[in-house]
Amino acid sequence: MQIRKDIEEDYKGTRKVLYSMAKNVRNKKNESSEVVNDANGDLLVDLEDIVCRWRNYFDVLLNIRNDFFPMQ
After folding, report:
1. What pLDDT is stored for residue 70 in this prediction?
2. How far apart are the two ends of the chain, measured CA to CA in Å?
3. Confidence (pLDDT) at 29
4. What is the pLDDT of residue 40?
5. Cβ pair 44, 50 in contact under 8 A
6. Which of 66, 50, 47 is CA-nearest to residue 58?
7. For 40-61, b where at least 16 C-beta lie within 10 A, e where not — what string?
8. What is the DSSP string of the chain?
9. What is the value of pTM for the model shown?
10. Based on the number of CB atoms within 10 Å of its own CB, is 10 exposed (0-12), middle (13-18) or buried (19 or more)?
């Protein structure tokens, strides 16, 4: 709990630690996730598995079977 003590002391003083922490959070770039869930909810971390999952996801999403207007 040293960080808590440092923050409390800093808050009563110059607040340099707090401003530094806020600056780091603000400047942090949005990072994309490197893991994806498969259709069963299990995590995929291998790049090839992730690409395959996205391919299958969009294939299902964009290729909806339509029984009302059959393809001719």
Report:
1. 62
2. 69
3. 63
4. 92
5. yes
6. 50
7. eeeebeeeeebeeeeeeeeeee
8. -HHHHHHHHHHHTT-HHHHHHHHHHHHPPPPPPS-EE-TTS-EE-SHHHHHHHHHHHHHHHH----SSS---
9. 0.45
10. middle
Q: What does the alpha-carbon distance between residue 4 and residue 1 come to, in Å, rounded to a whole number?
A: 5
Length of the chain: 72
Q: Are 37 and 43 in contact (CB under 8 A)?
A: yes
Q: Going residue by residue through the chain, which has 72 residues, state the pLDDT in tens, using 9 for 90 and above.
A: 677 777 777 777 787 877 887 787 777 765 556 778 888 989 988 889 989 999 998 888 888 776 666 665
Cα angle vertex 38, ends 33, 40, to 5°?
135
Query: Exposure of 36 by Cβ count < 10 A (0-12 exposed, 13-18 middle, 19+ buried)?
Result: middle
